[in-house]
Design a protein that fits this description.
- By secondary structure, the chain is mostly helical.
- 65% of the residues lie in helices and 4% in strands.
- The protein has 44 helices and eight strands.
- It is globular.
Amino acid sequence: MTGETTVRTAVRIHGRGAQQDAVRALLDGMPARGGHLVVTGEPGLGRTTLLQWAARSFRAGPVLRLGPGLGPDAPATAEHLLDTLREVPGPAPALVCVDDAHLWDAPARIALSRATRRLRPAGPTAVLLAVAGHRAVDPEFAHLPLVRLDPLSPPVAADLLDDLTDGAVAPAVRERLLAEAEGNPGLLHALVRRLSPAELRGHLPLPGPLADAATLAEVAGDAPAGPCGDARDLLLTVAAAVRASDGPDADAGLVLDAVRRLRPEPGPGPRPAPLPAQLALTGDRLRFHGTLVRRAVLVTAAPDRRRAAHRALADALETGGDPLPALLHRTWSLAGPAPAPRLADRLAAAADRTVSAPYGLRATAYARAAELTADAATRAERYTAAAEQALLAGRPERARPLLTAARDSAAPAAVRGRAELVRGLTELRDGPVGDAHQSLLLAASLLAPEAPTAADTATLAAADAAWAAGDLPACLAALAPEPRHDLPVHLNPAPPRAAGHLAAVVREHRVGMRAMLEGRIDRAVAPLGQVVERGRTDDRPEGLLRSAAAALLLGDVDAARRGGARALAAARRLGSDALVPQALEYLAYAELRAGRHPQARTHAEEGLRTALRTGQRNTAAHHRAILALAASIEEEPDVVARHVTAALGTARRHGLAQVATLAEWATARADLGRGRPFDAADRLGLLVLPGPGRGHFAVWRLAVPCFVEAAVLAGRHEETREVLTDFAGWAAFGADPQAAAQLARCHALLAPPDRADGLFRHALARHDEAGGDFERARTALLHGKWLRRRRRPREARGRLGTALAGFDRCGAGVWAAQARGELRALGALSDGQDTGTLTRLTPQQRRIARHVAEGATNREVALTLAVSTRTVDYHLRKVFAALGVRSRLELARMVEQAEQAEPVEKTGARP
């Protein structure tokens, strides 16, 4: 190492929005009331940082700091705290920040706990405590509300690294730092600080190991320490066992057996009493409370003792007949870094045979076998196999460094092709899709001579990358070569019969997709239909995902939902975390195409969480775009804006044209729903009208009905003619179940008065065939408006009442407001009725409002709806603001009035 880097202070706190919201809710409750909150997290996750942020954010009164690290003059006891609070002048609220409260001895913790109770009647005082998360929360604080700090997701950790270094880190070094830090911001700081500028820029090799004992000890402090020798041996053995379990815990029986082997001499039992504070026992599984402490226990142990623990575990496992983890422990029991070819061959062979083992465990086995391999070509192949398994496990941040290690000019072309395939798939989910496209094309060329169908798989993935980028020529070029007939080589090797099945799926999807893009619909239906049909009997997530994608291309929404749901179940069954967000994406798109926005939102919310957790920013951007579209029909412009901003941020950095088009469409549809047709027409015109800025080639047509409606309202009829001709061709194909009805609606908006009525009625009849409450309600609303303006109030009242009922049923609050406005103009809905209606609330807000009106507390509502009390508090504030009420009693009265008026509103009849 050539020196250390001075790390700049991060500009903002990263990835702690939920925790900051919880603290902010505590502070916002001042000065009306006090409160308490416990912040917990293992070392390095930012407990002190959050307390410091809270202290800076509190401006309503004095901030009192108690505990180590917050100031030399901090009071030392809870009684001193009470005395200090009594001296606070006047009625000003006070914030008390107590850092590292777990370090106090038991009497002091009891005194502090009593002090927090006594503070409640003492006035507006809030107490914010930070306690360690590498051990259970002390019982003295267990009665207080708690917020937990977890490791950062890979994208958030990457943003923090860029913030710390101004982005001046070589890509390979960046990958290593993120993999080693495992989402711990304190460890990431320490790793960056350890490296010199030359090492950060990749000009000098990195030290090994990167997260060494000194660095981990610096961040973990004394958290890994055990109280006695027996406890230290137990901690070490659990840490070593978890290393080969691909999970957070280990079998307690195995651990105790190994501890007995580790300490064969007579003495106390192998399990200290009580269990060390760093460990938790759940059933027959032992685990650490925190990942960092587990790593620190293992790395800071004496090398001979660490090897002895692995040797004891290997002996115990070999007795039980579990070869893969036994061999792993045997390799870790070796002294020195010298190659061990025979043991490496045995380990790699065991990983090849144990196809049912978790992907993460197989990745560890292949990587360890590579470390012990002397031959460069074989070493590169094993690192590549490790990267393949890591990607399937949903660990792209782990796969990238393995790919870097696999780079070797002596490796065969097929091995380098496999490596490029993994690299391309990783970038497709979490990087610039243009780079992914090139990597996948390179993979196809390298794989073609020895594994031509694997090359087809890479080529189809390259087409997926071009599709995401909105590059139609590149997509067609990738699909151009004729498919080849052989068994595929892919990331998760399948039995021969299953491999042949997947080869056929890849071949047919490729042929059908190219025909579709060339406009040869007649030639696309048969091969894509075969892909959908094969999905009925497939049980592997890769084939099922292709089946769902083909069904979406054909407009078979039910088949897409079926394929997506089965792909999701298969991915979860196999532990393929990387494919779960993609399956949820297809499910969400299918629900969106069917007009079921609430269901689409549910799938997309889960997909967003899993995509962020598995480091797939591009997939997360797709889910955000879906969430924006779902929210665009509700009265949640802030939600639309938040998701659109995040989706466009990733889309612009990574070249995601499809995401960008969907996000812009969501913004425009929200404008249209809120009665801003000029803004909507301007935004949609850029997406659908011919020109260099037109939206994604496969998506822009979906926005045409919105553009036609906005353009007509804005007086721009002539601009709709050309795009409507294109949309008519799209509707004739039948890929969108709503398109035929939408086309009739568009023609009705543009038709002369003598034809418009019939076209509206025809559109409503087509909606009845296709289903979908939202689009039918939109057509009924437009027809009702048209009838009212032609002085046909009786017919208009019926149409508008139907529209309002449809909007209510699908939660389209912003469009329901339009229907209510039209009914009010007809005299069919009074202002008094409208004031009490709940349709202006989101579905979640309506549920919370009804529970509160029935007398439930916020905590009871949270338990009923399976959400946090903080979420209930947030939505309830929104409910009060939207309905103009100031108390729960007023809300109860308004809910009762609204529900009594609901039948009147939905029928449009007058009382």
